[in-house]
Amino acid sequence: MASNIDIPTPRHKVNPTLTEERLKATFDPNRITHLLDDSSAGTKRRHYLESLIENDPSNVFNNDNNNYLHRTDRHINSLAKFVRLIEICRSIGVGDDDNGLLKVDTDFSTLLNCVADDLPAALHWVMFVPNILSLADDEQQKEWLKMCRDWKMIGCYAQTELGHGSNVRALETTATFVKDKNDGHFIINSPTLTSFKFWPGTLGRTSNHAMVIARLIDGEGIDRGMHNFLVQTRSLDDHSLMPGVVCGDIGPKIGYNNMDNGFAKFDHVKIPRRSMAMRFAVVDRNGVYKKKIISDAASKINYITMMQVRSYIVRAASLALRMGTTITIRYSAVRKQGFKTEMGGMKEEHQILDYKQQQYRLFPLLAASYCFFFSAKRVHDNLKSIENRLMNLSNNQQSISKIEVGDIHATTSCLKSFTTAITADGLEDCRKSCGGHGFLASSGLPELINSYLQNPTVEGDNAMLPMQVVKILLKLVKDVQSKDTKAIGEWSKCNSSYLIEPVQAMLNRNEIPSCDVSTREDMLDVSVCLKAFQHRAARLLVNLANQIQAEVMEGKSFETAWNGALIQMGRVSKAHSLYLLLSNFIDGIKEASKTVLGPNEARVLGDLALLFGLYWIEKDSGEFLVDGYFSAQQMQWAHVSILVMLDKVRPNAVALVDANDFSDFRLKSALGRFDGNVYEAIMESAKKDPLNSTEPGPGYEEHLKRLIVDGVGVYTGTASRL
Amino acid sequence: MASNIDIPTPRHKVNPTLTEERLKATFDPNRITHLLDDSSAGTKRRHYLESLIENDPSNVFNNDNNNYLHRTDRHINSLAKFVRLIEICRSIGVGDDDNGLLKVDTDFSTLLNCVADDLPAALHWVMFVPNILSLADDEQQKEWLKMCRDWKMIGCYAQTELGHGSNVRALETTATFVKDKNDGHFIINSPTLTSFKFWPGTLGRTSNHAMVIARLIDGEGIDRGMHNFLVQTRSLDDHSLMPGVVCGDIGPKIGYNNMDNGFAKFDHVKIPRRSMAMRFAVVDRNGVYKKKIISDAASKINYITMMQVRSYIVRAASLALRMGTTITIRYSAVRKQGFKTEMGGMKEEHQILDYKQQQYRLFPLLAASYCFFFSAKRVHDNLKSIENRLMNLSNNQQSISKIEVGDIHATTSCLKSFTTAITADGLEDCRKSCGGHGFLASSGLPELINSYLQNPTVEGDNAMLPMQVVKILLKLVKDVQSKDTKAIGEWSKCNSSYLIEPVQAMLNRNEIPSCDVSTREDMLDVSVCLKAFQHRAARLLVNLANQIQAEVMEGKSFETAWNGALIQMGRVSKAHSLYLLLSNFIDGIKEASKTVLGPNEARVLGDLALLFGLYWIEKDSGEFLVDGYFSAQQMQWAHVSILVMLDKVRPNAVALVDANDFSDFRLKSALGRFDGNVYEAIMESAKKDPLNSTEPGPGYEEHLKRLIVDGVGVYTGTASRL
Questions:
Q1: N or C end of chain B, less CB within 10 A?
Q2: Considering B258, B275, B292, which residue would you say is the last residue of a domain?
């Protein structure tokens, strides 16, 4: 038995190095915590909800053994957690509105975060219910939402197919109308292997209903394209599969393994006619298809609602990066390596956090973690205000232009793409910058990273989104070019408005502007960075427009010209996001200074904004040098300014991650503990591995013994070299 | 039961799209296979060894269920595989030299690769035995190596400690000499928690001996620094722990989980005096410490041997990247998405591989996968030839200068750092570019990536190595500056020789050179890229030297100036590697054209070399624009030239990954199969998940049923909002 492993248990006394770091801070971390929770009341509420989970007497939420369990056991545990979570929600009224109806509640999201583990059925609430709210008609909503609220119906959103990802038009599943003596019905069918539904979360094992996206064939045999159909997949009595339905789990993934992402094959499954979501179109009992006349506002609300998912993704990027930097910066403060030569004979080691290349890896990510928060908030508020405007309109009155819709689409697309890319890479860089121990599951980073890795791919693959961004921004160029004053007026109310003026100037072939900084000190000004980002985005966009135009004039097909420009589109999209991110960062700090932040906190966040700007200017230096916007001298100043800002951020680094206020329960990291007793925690965790449960270890008797004792490996001299 | 999942099994007929791709190739993939295997005989030998594993009647090597097993079971299976592998080796004489003595055999490495799974005890052969060969004296070798050969002694190399990574000087484990009536002995002790040995592979469960790096305290109580001590950790009879030793596994990691990386605590463990490895120093029975007089050549051979590990790491980077690109390029050829607009009404979808941004992601990685191969080979040959020169010297005759040793150190350090960074990021980008299915374990990419991720950290953390590179290259600058002709003569025989001339010119403040390309077509010349890399490396190096010098003159401490330059050191190191990589790529193709490659193959590899060069010029465009070496116009031509090269590589892409000649057994990827029947393979794999073993799935009865049937989630209207 390995119980003789004699390891000191964590001391629960804070590592003095961390205490010193905390004393260095020039600001009050609590005020930033309130900012992240929206208000001090928000922080209080979160603490209350966290305590419900962390102190739950059932102990079902304990995550201590997560890393040591087989995937199947983790899935089972996560089901147990979910049932208990719903029990808690019911007991405190989370999820009900004032009339006992269903409410998609922010408290519910907070509780999900507090659980600090992925729960399969969460998607019911996060994707399935909103889908019904968007696409079902009033009568359907009344019936279905009650079942959803009571957790009788557990649903998933089944769009992608084995052979078809984001290209919705290529989906093969069919829903064919069949007239009968009664109301009529649909036959849902998977005609090919590639048409199997594949990937939907909770489809495999947990859900009993699926909102299936299928090609509608109406009563006349006409293909009406994609529509949504509610298909019951499992019995409500015993969870057995419904006739003609086969579902299962798609197997282990790089991360997110509690979730039963599933596949489904539908073999001529019969569903009632009224299972088609009928808010926007109906098929009547004779099989006649009809689009409903929906107010412009109503259809746009629907669109806007869908775009909110992207603002959540940006917020999730911030959250994940804040967790990653919390772990890594705390550990880099307590981890020591390399002797101080200046100390002479003394054998004191450096804190890793004092090395400039470590600061250069981590502080820009720290800055990004806050930066993304402000953009997520801004975009969310933006979408909410559009939604409110639309809600308060009388029918058919148009209040939001196509341009405004396009602009917000471009904004969310480029932000989704850029923030998830930076976060995925950034988390991995956090892990690498923890050295060997970042490789340990007990560091908390592997699971954080691997579960995060879905984000660059879902809700619009990061490689594809830039095309959509560019398509919209090219419209702006065209409107400016053709001097369409009405359109320009619309653009000027949008996020992309900053592009109008420089695009205009470039199209008029005005003199190329350049950065006007003339001393190193002047470079320490965030508006210099913002102007540079503005210029760069406009320049890349206009170049792209000119290039496509020129190639088409030369006789290339539009498709070929477009394909040849795809690489640059990624750069345009990135440039657009960087302007928006920095601009929202600056505005956000200003805004928050009127409420929760004091001047010290605003100053510290301002340092991060400046570091963020300078870092990305140097990172993309070629794009600022190529047209002479920056001179070599200015670029050199930018580099030196980065070093200045790293020094400035250094004393506040630990306090800035403390401000995230993640409990140890949530971080699940031996390296990121608040008390900094990392080595005790690592050993404590290692003891739990099942490989240590017997002495000698598993596999010795059956295998290793044959080699060492039985002599399988002994040289006999009889083998001739083959 | 889920056995009713009715999935078509793979057709074992090649996907016609892949057949078409293969017909497009302009060269013979077999000839490139021979290059990668060193000769056609090498390919034949590999095929023979592969067949021993893949067709082994015991079926113990089957990897089909790997993704579905708990870590403990995978560890056990890997022990079974290892024992069987040794049995096979014994039967064909692999591992024995002609006299029945131990031989670290390339066939053994090939067999390890063929197993396509990580085997814990492999490190015995790869790290432990070479360590004995380097550091033990003749008598010790005689005794120990026999036990190693017979697999009685299974060893590991125990250096790093819980609180101390690569800073060897900070290690805390002690080996204190104690005089006794007989021969004297050492006491090995772990005085603190942070001194626990932590990380060594196979230390936890598999090995029975450890080569422990400890601080030697001799008979006079004098600290003699780090030395190696062979410590028996487990009984040879029953694998039980030796008195005073506690070892165990350190727990799960982001990857490489078959391996029992371990910890060890030594509580005053007594070992014989002669357990200290005594090739370079001895402690006699009275406790007197003495360094041995070793020939300059002998100590250098030792150093050179250790550096070979880095050449293996570069080779492993090539191998991993070749696997990643094989999977991704094949899948991108058969995966279709987005309708062809040019086809009018036809509903044909594009091959993903036709999108320029997909080519831009994958082809430079394809190029890198070959590029790294040539550098690994070159460095390996380089080290071997130095070793041979040293072997053929009479004692004390010096034949290889300190400069030459430094140069090869800088070369291996920068190549290790750059190639492992590019490979780790590149594999992840391969995964992302497979869209959703790259997230599946059955794609083969998650395990490939996660096990690879140790490489940027081990054998010199990538973030630290650039300092060592720069330290050495600054010596070159100094020698050039001080016009030390003897030293310059030495440098001119080295890998860094290309730096001498441009460094000289810069120090003399000659006119800054610039790229002389004057048409777009002239940019399609790999020597243009090579010259650019040469200039960039020299410029960054000289700038760095000047900066440190200037800051010290201004009164900063050297340590502060050095710390402030760390970020730039990373850039110098990268610039140095890029020159070496491209130069070795070009030379390697030329060399191979004399033997295995025909003109067609050389041309195709030449296309990759040019793409590699152009890609990295654009990627780092700022560094080429900032001093005017490239003009904006030239940089634009470089971009267009990349597009030209992507087009050129496109028809050969599938054949170029076929040339790697990985069997499906080795790739373990549903997406990368030679026959391209990816969707059948994905479903085939999904069926195996234990979550699909019962219907309804695990956890329904205990948990989910409470929610759906028992009504835990039903709204009761009694909860008041808390």
A1: N
A2: B292
Q: Which helix (H) or strand (E) holds A500?
A: helix A500-507
pTM comes to 0.96
Whether residue B269 sits in one domain with residue B249: yes
Judge if A314 and A189 occupy the same domain. Answer: no
Average pLDDT over residues B575-598: 97
CB-CB contact of A25 with A655 (8 Å): yes
- Mark whether A280 and A306 lie in a shared domain: no
SS (H, E, C) A413-458: HHHHHHHHHHHHHHHHHHHHCCHHHHHEHHHCHHHHHHHHCCCCCC
User: In whole angstroms, what is the distance from residue B516 CA to residue B633 CA?
Assistant: 12
Chain B residue with minimum CA distance to A72: B691
Q: Are residues A311 and A270 in the same domain?
A: no
Grade residue B103 by pLDDT with cuts at 50, 70 and 90: confident
DSSP string, B606-625: HHHHHHHHHHHHHHTHHHHH
User: Among residues A656, A625, A658, which one has the least CA distance to residue A639?
Assistant: A625
Whether the upstream peptide bond of residue B696 has omega within 30° of 0, thus cis, is: yes
Does residue B343 have a pLDDT over 70?
no
Say yes or no: A306 and A237 in one domain.
no
Is A507 found in the same domain as A388?
Answer: yes
Quick: pLDDT tens for A427-481: 999 999 999 999 999 999 999 999 999 999 998 999 999 999 999 999 999 999 9
With beta carbons less than 8 A apart as the criterion, state whether A219 and A182 touch: no
Say yes or no for a CB contact (<8 Å) between B707 and A151: yes
Give the gap in angstroms from C-alpha B389 to the nearest C-alpha of chain A. Answer: 30
B98 exposure class (CB count in 10 Å sphere: 0-12, 13-18, 19+): exposed
pLDDT, average across residues A12-21 = 92
Averaged pLDDT, A597-619: 98
Range of the domain at A559: 299-657
- Length reported for chain A: 722
Q: How far apart are the C-alpha atoms of B676 and B673, rounded to whole Å?
A: 5
Query: What is the identity of the amino acid at A401?
Result: S
pLDDT tens-digit profile of A366-394?
Answer: 999 999 999 999 999 999 998 888 888 76
Model pLDDT for residues B205-233, shown as the tens digit of each residue: 999 999 999 999 999 999 999 999 999 99
- What residues does B223 pair with on adjacent strands? B217
Q: How, if at all, do strands B185-189 and A349-351 pair?
A: unpaired
Close Cβ partners of B485 (under 8 Å, ≥ 6 residues apart):
none
Q: List chain A residues with CB under 8 Å of B239.
A: 696, 700, 704-705, 708
Which pLDDT score is estimated for A410? 97
Residue B567: which of A246, A357, A559 has the nearest Cβ?
A357
Number of domains forming the structure of chain A: 2
- A268 and A338: one domain? no
Per the domain annotation, does A181 fall within a domain?
yes
B139 is catalytic: no
Let me know whether A305 and A278 are in one domain. no
Backbone angles phi, psi at B126, to 5 degrees: -85, -30
Q: Are A152 and B707 in contact (CB under 8 A)?
A: no
* B117 is a domain residue: no
Q: What is the mean pLDDT of residues B675-703?
A: 96
For chains A and B, CB pairs below 8 A equal 472
The domain boundary, picked from A275, A292, A309, lies at A292
**Residue with more model confidence, B718 or B169:** B169
CATH number of the domain within which A266 lies:
2.40.110.10
Nearest by CB to residue B204, choosing from A454, A691, A707, is A691
Quick check: is A516 in a domain? yes
Three-class SS state of A481: helix
CA dihedral over A668, A671, A676, A681, signed as positive or negative = positive
Query: Residue B622 and residue A627: Cβ atoms within 8 Å?
Result: no
Other CB atoms within 10 A of residue A169 CB: 12
